[in-house]
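QA checklist item 7 of 12: single-chain prediction sanity check.
[x] sequence parsed
[x] length recorded as 174
[x] structure emitted
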Amino acid sequence: MAKLLQLNLLIRQQGYTLIEILIVLFIISIVSSVALLSINQNENKRLAAFANELMQTIQLAEEQALLQPAVIGFSVKDQALQFQTYQSSEGKSLWLPLDDTVLSSHLIPADIQVNIEIANQQKTAEDKSAQPQIVISTNGDLIPFIIYVGKPGKSPRYKVTGEADGALSIEALV
């Protein structure tokens, strides 16, 4: 009889109950959902930081145009932000890259897409013209623009707006 009881206990101890399996699956689902949420928040923070840095860099270019005084151009080309200064000599007009440490060419990370809209016309980064997309005058005025920042292939998450009087703002899009 004692051997039969031991054998019966061994048979019952060989598997997991349905409750135990459900509890483990529930814990795994909670941990994975928290991990996914934190990854999504990290991407959003990175886009917000890039949009803020872009707005502050354009503000710095406005201040530079006032202080020098110089006409400064801004464009997005070849996945890079480029600032140029306008030079006129011997009847020729040239846009030359700025050799300033802060306003030099900045690479845009591969996982961030930047689109510029000027006068309701989309300007793409593939535009190879020598003319800048945004021009900042010596009195701080600029060509009104909207810059959209987001993930490639997805709808933009942030909008940086520049008004004709030089005012800049940033807005999170839903």
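[x] summary fact logged: Helices lie at 2-12, 18-67.
[ ] second reviewer sign-off
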